[in-house]
Amino acid sequence: MTTNGRPAAVDTAAEGHADVRLLYSDAILSITLIETSHSTLAQLTGEIDISNSTPVQAALTYAKGRALPLVIDVADVTFVDVAGARALIEFTRQGQVPPVDVRNISSRMRFLLDMLQ
What we know:
Strand order of the largest sheet: 3-4-5-6-7
CATH architecture: 2-Layer Sandwich
Protein name: STAS domain-containing protein
InterPro entries: MlaB-like_STAS, STAS_dom, STAS_dom_sf
Structural class: alpha/beta
Domain STAS: 29-117
Pfam family, one: STAS_2
């Protein structure tokens, strides 16, 4: 399975059925949830900023509710401000078991995340 030309973090061919649904959407961001029997993938597309950072944390907390490995794919995030970066940092610092894996972080986002940690 590929997403926008990149391999997805969840290999549904090997795992069988995948449940795909829109978890959150506003004017500038959408979060798609892909659930298999072994893992959960949250794909973020658009912009994360002060207007949606709280709903982003709520959506990711919901996605984590399955107690399976959670991958957050931010490859299609085109903008993140300090509030959005802090939302991601706070979510990943919650001592998740199993841990949360944030993938496809752009160099600009990585710079902001590193600066805030």
